[in-house]
Backbone:
């Protein structure tokens, strides 16, 4: 699924500088850093360059989510037009919150750091905000999780193809 979305976005963003493309992809929910690194590898952007661009791209929205999503959701739930959508989004995020609720800091690190469908910095930040985990605790956990996800995704996006090519 990530590869399909990445290839579609690559065609939509063609013409932009490649570094900007992977930066934008890394900021998008669902794709995030993992999608940015897959795109960077496909675009033959050196890993050392891709890591910084994708990491920062994925990190930029996180403080805003942690600090502002709860008041924004509360305001949106006051409108008839989107109330059901916001409640559904909250319900979906909270359905993945068991590990974070149980282990808080370590749970959030693992949730963000292990690149599985439905996990990542966006969802982790949303869950942390909905669970009212303080910014001083949530942000470092998300950063550590992103470092972990970066290591895993670089191994898969850059290391695995290199190994297969050199067999």
Residues:
């Amino acid at each position: 699924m990530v590869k399909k979305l990445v290839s579609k976005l690559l065609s939509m963003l063609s013409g932009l500088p490649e570094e900007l493309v992977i930066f934008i992809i890394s900021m998008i929910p669902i794709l995030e850093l993992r999608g940015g690194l897959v795109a960077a590898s496909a675009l033959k952007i050196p890993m050392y360059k891709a890591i910084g661009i994708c990491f920062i791209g994925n990190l930029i929205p996180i403080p805003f989510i942690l600090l502002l999503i709860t008041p924004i959701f509360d305001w949106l739930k006051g409108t008839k037009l989107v109330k059901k959508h916001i409640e559904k989004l909250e319900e979906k995020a909270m359905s993945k919150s068991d590990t974070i609720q149980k282990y808080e800091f370590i749970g959030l690190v693992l949730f963000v750091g292990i690149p599985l469908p439905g996990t990542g910095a966006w969802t982790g930040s949303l869950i942390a905000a909905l669970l009212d985990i303080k910014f001083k605790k949530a942000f470092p956990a998300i950063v550590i999780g992103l470092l972990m996800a970066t290591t895993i995704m670089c191994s898969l996006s850059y290391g695995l193809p290199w190994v297969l090519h050199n067999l």
In short: The mean pLDDT is 91. The chain has two domains: 2-59, 61-148. The radius of gyration is 17 Å.
